[in-house]
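re: ur question from yesterday

yeah so i grabbed the chain u mentioned. its 232 aa long if i counted rite. heres the sequnce exactly as i have it in my notes:
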Amino acid sequence: MKSVRSCIFILLLLSVSLFADAQLRLRHPEMYVGVHGGVMASTVNFSPTVPNMRSFTDAWIFGGNGGFVFRYSEQRCCAIQVELNYMQRGWREKADEAYSRTLHYIELPFLMHIYFGSQTWRGFVNVGPQIGYCLYDDSGKGTKQTEEVHQYMPIDNKFDWGIAGGVGAYCRTKKAGLYQLEVRFNYSFGTVFASKSTDYFRQSNPMCVSINLAWMWEIKNVKPKTIKQKYE
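ran it thru and got these structure tokens back, copy pasting raw so excuse formatting
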């Protein structure tokens, strides 16, 4: 299973580059930089299932995310987008007193940005691989709900890798920049806890859904000024 996930990750990374290179070129390349942020709901897909996480709706926790965005396009309808994000992931166990655990990640997605529409209003699809690293684990808050202690242990894998996909729309203005709304889903192929045959968990993959607003500015090429010579 891990080898299959690795192949999917690599193929997706190559597809982003090949698809972008195959499109018709723009007369003037587009380059944007900006910031984005929003709210997200996250959980962890455990196998075996943690007893008090059997209710799908009770297993999610809410957090925040935000970061920097860079987008570059020399092709029509396609661009490359790279981000540097901070994300709060985790899970919740619900009973009389809910137990929740939050993991704080730094994340680097490498996305293919496919857009359509007019010069002012555009819809888009983002898809591509991502890597991340857990900077801090709050070790959990609340009352531990079960006698099983496996999900309460320190995490084994701080490095994370997976895929991200989102849909949204944005408005481009001449002087006030670009305003964007996106809904995105992230799924990690990497596991939080060790998943060897001798370990308790076979799966412990984080996943999350986020709603983000972005404000971006276009970086335009600076053309050299022409110097007019006067002849006397």
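noticed a couple things. Residues 2-218 form a domain with the Porin fold (CATH 2.40.160.20). also Residues 222-232 have pLDDT under 50 and may be disordered.
anyway ttyl
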